[in-house]
């Protein structure tokens, strides 16, 4: 089914579909992997700073 659909497409259409697939994969990686990791690191760094500040106060 997909194979026949793909075979019917012209070269330029295939390039557009491939470019959109790459773009979609990039957005997915950003939202599902990079952004959560960045948020996790940021939260833990601020928590570590608070702990260091508390220890210094003691």
Automatic annotation (TrEMBL):
Stated name of the protein: Putative general secretion pathway protein M
Transmembrane segments: 16-34
Keyword check for Membrane: yes
GO biological process, any: protein secretion by the type II secretion system
InterPro entries cross-referenced by the UniProt entry: T2SS_GspM
Keywords: Membrane, Transmembrane, Transmembrane helix
Gene Ontology terms: cellular component: type II protein secretion system complex
């Amino acid at each position: 089914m997909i194979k026949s659909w793909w075979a019917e497409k012209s070269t330029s259409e295939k390039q557009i579909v491939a470019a959109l697939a790459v773009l979609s994969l990039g957005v997915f990686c950003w939202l599902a992997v990079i952004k959560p990791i960045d948020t996790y690191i940021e939260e833990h760094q601020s928590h570590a700073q608070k702990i260091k500040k508390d220890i210094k106060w003691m």
